[in-house]
Each structure stands twice: as C-alpha cells, then as structure tokens.
Design goal:
The structure is a single chain. The protein is an alpha+beta fold. It is 37% helix and 20% strand. It is built from 21 helices and 22 strands. Strands 1-6-5-4-7-3-2-8-9 form a nine-stranded mixed beta sheet, covered by helices on one side. Strands 10-11-14-12-13 form a five-stranded mixed beta sheet, sandwiched between helices. A five-stranded mixed beta sheet has the order 15-17-16-19-18. A hairpin with an 8-residue loop joins β4 (135-143) and β5. The longest helix is centred in the last third of the chain and has 25 residues, at 492-516. The protein is elongated and about 105 Å long. It starts with 5 loop residues before the first strand and ends with a helix.
C-alpha cells in the first residue's frame, strides 16, 4: 500500500439501487455471477479492440481470459479478468455513480410488486451491484491497460452508503472483483455449483473462463477452462443443438425464458457475414419505452465486439429481435456515423430484415400457437412496419392478425389471406372498422348492413390501427375500405330501393339538418343501418374520430371535424321525430339521434347532464 485510504459516499441513485438489491428477495440469486462474468467479458472485448491501435497494451499477457476462484476459508468468491482495467477515476465513475439514462426507470420498476423479478438487473447497467445480493462486502482491485507501472486502485464497500479507495502496488492488468459471501450464501463456495452456473449462463462467452482443477475434493494449482470459449455463431449449424441456441440466447439477452424461434445464417460472396437472430417469447417490461434506445443486436467484426447496433442493422419495427451479426468486411474502427452511411451495412440490414420476416413467415405457417404468442407480445410493433417499410409492406401485411365478425371472440387470429379466402364471388373489397375496443368495433351500428348480408369485417381496436390503415390501402390486389367512411355501393335492386327511401325521407332529413345546424356536416339516409336509428360517417380520407380524440388527449390541437349523420328512416325514433309537431320535442329527438351515434362511436359527450335531462324528457313526455 502506497497511499492512505480515502472514504467517499455513494451518489444518491447508487444508494437507492444498493438498498433495493440488499433488502429485496430475488428468485434467482445466482444472477450476480452472470453479471460479473459478462462485465469481465466486456473488459476483455474492449482491450482486444483498443489493442489494435495500442499493441503494447497486451504486452506480456496477450491471452485474454477470465478466472473464477474460491477461497472457502476466507469465504470469498473472486472473478478476475486481464482486460482493459480501470483507473482510479474510472472506478469512481463506474462504481460510485451511475450514468445510465435508464437508472430511474430501473428504480421505478423495482416497486413492491416487482422486487422478486431479478431479470431487471442487467438491463440498465447496474449489474455489478447484484454482487450485494450474496455478499456483505465487495472489493474491486483494478489497473488500466494503458497505465504505466504496476500500481492500481482498490475499491471496497459493504453496500451501506460509503466506499473506500486506496492505491495498491503489484496489481496485474485488469480487474478483480472479490465477494465476501454472507453467512447463508455458502452454496457459492461449492466449486461444482459455480461450474454449473458458468455452464448455464456463460458457456458461450468468447473468452476462456477458468477455474482451478479439483483434486481429492480440494483445488489444485492447475487452471482448466470450464466453458466452450468459442463464439457459437461461428460453429456449423449441424454441430449445434436447440439447447445450445437457447443457452446462448439467455446469456446474450439476460432472459430466463426460452427464445420463441431463431435463424442462423452464413452469407458468403461479395460480402461475408454471419447472423444469429432470435425472436423472444415475450417483451421485456420496458419494451415500449425503447424505440429511441434500441439494444439487443450486437455487431462483431471478425469476432471483435464493436457495439450494440440495432438502430443500424434492423428497422425500428423489428426492435424486439435479439442476436449477433459478425462481419468479415467492415473496418474495425467503424463508428455509428460510418455505419449510417456504409453501403455494406445497408446490405446487411436488408439481409437481416429479410431473415426475420422469413422466420416469422415460417413460424406463422408451421406453428399457429407459437405465432399467436409472438403476435400477442409484438404484433403492435410489427404493424409499424406497414408505414415505415414500403418495400416490405406486402410481406408485413401477410403477417398481420385481426379479429373479425366471423372469428371466435376478440383474440386476433384472422390474416388478410384468411379473409380473402372466405370472400364470396364478386366481392373485391376487404372491409374493416377501427374503434377504441373490440366491443365498440363489433357492436358498431355501421356494420349492420354488412353483417346482415354475411359480409366479413375485420375489427381493429389497437391505437395504431387507424394510422396503419392509412398506409395499408391494398393487399393482394384487393382494396381495403373502412365501413364508416365514404359511400357503400349497392347492387342494382338495392340501389332502386335506396333511391325510393331517400325520396320518401327527404322531409325528415331536411328537418333533422335544420334542427342540428352546424353540429353535423350533412344528414343522409343510411345504406349501413338495419336496426339502429343513426350512425356517424366520415369522408373516405378523414381521420377516425377515436384517433382524433387520442391525439387531442396527448396535447395536440386538432381542428373541429363535423361528421355526416346517417339515419334509418324505418326506425321508430326517426318516425316519431317525423310526426312530432312540438318543435322543442323534435329538437330533443334530433339531438338524441346525434348523441346516440356519438356514444356508439365511443365519444365522450360534451354535456352528459344535458343528455340525461333530454332522455328523461323524451321518456316521460
């Protein structure tokens, strides 16, 4: 030791994380070992990359590795790597403060009901602190690869608000994390237990993970590698089992669940690269917050990890994909800016997109149950591709699933191909309706005439559906039409009957328009209604009223839009209005026709109390 010990307090957010880690119960305590080995692997990756420009940093110790050692007498478990290491300032920055932008989300997510979910650790750069799940004291000794001499820094804490720093001599390059285990965590002093955890979580780490050989129940002085220490994606597919892929996926994604499916490909020719892409079975808890902070697809160049490159290698609507891409051709000094402008990257991006869509096609064709699981987790995200990826729009549309008037319940199970396969001869339109909910869509009065004819209608109730439908105007040569927009065409016989009905109802139509004034754009005799008295209809290219409400609620100004009111002249309520001689009662009836249509469409009435009073007057009058 060459300097006095310095004691500092943790930054406030670190203290919060440590409090949660040390006072919460975790279903998977062993997660700490996965995180420490993952950090050690990152340190070796960084040194391998930096050594391209600074070969001297590897001098004297070029074989990068991770050593895990156990001292039963001292009750310590240590993880050592000879990677990039840390200086004193870096130790303070990395262990005493948290710069991760996701830390607050982590803290918020670790609410009382989620504290048993240890999967949260590792997703926000706080994996090191999982050591305090099993340790009452943690010591980190490190020396940076670029530091002169052999002096390093020792960081020590019991996780209770403070940590100490001291300068120490004779420190090898890299980092050693030593855990003094709690009294009830003796299982992690068992060599067999630790080896099994390495095999489960870190088998495919790209560096040797070594432990001391056992002889007569005691560790010897000889090290042996306990993982495969090879990049799984570089191995031939015929050598790999499903279990190998699943284990690799779990170590890559920090997911305790199996992947739903995967695709493993090697491309050779003008461009050489390997891709191993996984589709998870469920979305992580913060998935919908991650459009701007996309991670999960790692870029390697000749097995050197470069960066998380989801934004450059996959479009945003495929951000659920996890995996690796390893290129033989890109330069090792590639940056995010270069990736955005590199034609090779564009070709890799196109190939990865095609592979994922191929995988989803196969999943939909071969295993409807698994595809339903995928759709429930990521269907809303995939719909974004209809607007964002015009080149693959038809392929994405083929993968979409909806409820319909002929499906059994609200579960989205109907594809556009299913719909077309059931279309009667002569129908050339795919009918759909958008609404706030399945019940609102299925119960909409706008469907009555089509239901009466037995025409199937797709029921879309996701918030994104109205926006998506603005781009999905045609599929397989069939036009998509919203049942609540524009005119509905009738056959010749029905057209004659409609014309006669419009002529007969012209006086009541004019009266309703006069009573409602500027509240509606127009009043017409409906071709849509058979049972209900009225419904609201928009022009073909107008935005649906429920989407207008969503946009308005999010704080954006929307110009007023007065829809058309369509009436059913055969309905008793319309006939009563037609015969009503009292102008005040006629006004109440006209307003009731409008308000009923608004309620059926899902709108919030401007003056509910006035509606109640009006309804009471009509019922009692």
């Amino acid at each position: 030791m060459t300097a006095a010990t310095e004691t500092r307090k943790f930054e406030a957010e670190v203290a919060q994380v440590l409090h949660l880690v040390t006072h919460s119960l975790y279903s998977h305590k062993e997660i700490f070992l996965r995180e420490l080995i993952s950090n050690a692997s990152d340190a070796c990756d960084k040194l391998r990359f930096e050594a391209i420009a600074n070969p001297s940093w590897l001098a004297g110790d070029a074989e990068l590795r991770i050593d895990v050692s156990i001292d039963k007498d001292a009750r310590t478990l240590s993880v050592h790597d000879n990677g990039i290491g840390m200086s004193r300032d870096e130790l303070v920055a990395n262990l005493g403060t948290i710069a991760s932008s996701g830390t607050r989300r982590y803290l918020e997510s670790m609410s009382a009901e989620n504290r048993s979910d240890s999967r949260l650790i590792g997703q926000f750069g706080v994996g090191f602190y999982s050591a305090f799940v099993v340790a009452d004291e943690v010591t980190v000794t490190s020396r940076g690869a670029g530091d002169n001499g052999n002096e390093g820094t020792r960081w020590h804490s019991n996780g209770k608000g403070e940590y100490s720093l001291e300068t120490v001599s004779d420190v090898p390059r890299g980092t050693t994390v030593a855990l003094h285990l709690k009294e009830d965590e003796g299982e992690f002093l068992d060599s067999w237990k630790v080896r099994s955890l390495v095999s489960r979580y870190s088998e495919h780490i790209g560096f040797p993970i070594r432990m001391l050989k056992e002889g007569e129940g005691k560790p010897t002085a000889e090290w042996e590698t306990v993982n495969s220490a090879s990049a799984l994606w570089t191995r031939p597919k015929n050598e790999l089992k499903d279990e190998d892929y699943q284990n690799f996926y779990k170590s890559l994604s920090h997911d305790f669940s199996d992947a739903l499916s995967w695709t493993h490909n090697r491309v050779e020719g003008n461009q050489n690269f390997t891709s191993l892409l996984f589709v998870p079975a469920k979305a992580p808890f913060d998935f919908m917050q991650g459009r701007e902070e996309r991670k999960g697809l790692k870029l390697y160049i000749r097995r050197v990890f470069i960066m998380d490159a989801s934004e450059q290698l996959l479009p945003a609507y495929l951000r659920f994909v996890r995996g690796v891409v390893d290129s033989d051709d890109l330069p090792l000094n590639v940056s995010r800016e270069i990736l955005q402008q590199n034609r090779q990257v564009e070709r890799i991006r196109g190939a990865c997109t095609k592979r994922v869509l191929d995988l989803l096609d196969k999943l939909a064709a071969d295993d409807a149950g698994k595809y339903s699981t995928f759709w429930n987790a990521f269907g809303g995200v995939l719909k974004e591709g209809i607007a964002e990826d015009a080149g693959n729009r038809e392929r994405i549309a083929k993968l979409l699933r909806f409820s319909s008037t002929q499906s059994d319940g609200p579960a989205p199970s109907v594809s556009l191909d299913d719909y077309i396969g059931r279309m009667p001869l002569g129908q050339d339109v795919i009918w759909y309706i958008t609404a706030d909910s399945y019940a609102a869509a299925n119960g909409s009065p706008q469907l009555e005439a089509l239901k009466a004819k037995g025409t199937e209608v797709l029921l879309m109730s996701d918030r994104i559906d109205e926006w998506m439908a603005g781009y999905l105007t045609e599929y397989s040569g069939k036009k998509l039409r919203h049942v609540g927009k524009g005119e509905i065409e009738l056959d010749a016989a029905a057209s004659e009957a409609q014309k006669a009905s419009e002529e007969a109802a012209a006086p009541v139509v004019a009266r309703i328009k006069q009573l409602l004034g500027e509240r509606v754009r127009e009043v017409k005799v409906s071709r849509r209604l058979t049972d209900s008295p009225s419904c609201l209809v928009l022009d073909e290219y107008d935005m649906a009223l429920h989407l207008r409400r969503v946009i308005k609620q999010s704080g954006h100004e929307m110009p007023e839009a007065n829809p058309t009111l369509e009436i059913n002249p055969k309905h008793a309520l319309v006939k009563r209005l037609e015969a009503e001689g009292n102008e005040a009662k006629a006004s109440d009836l006209a307003m009731l026709l409008l308000e009923q249509a608004q309620v059926a469409e899902g709108a919030q009435l401007e003056d509910p109390s006035a509606f109640v009073r009006r309804m009471n007057r009509i019922l009692l009058g």
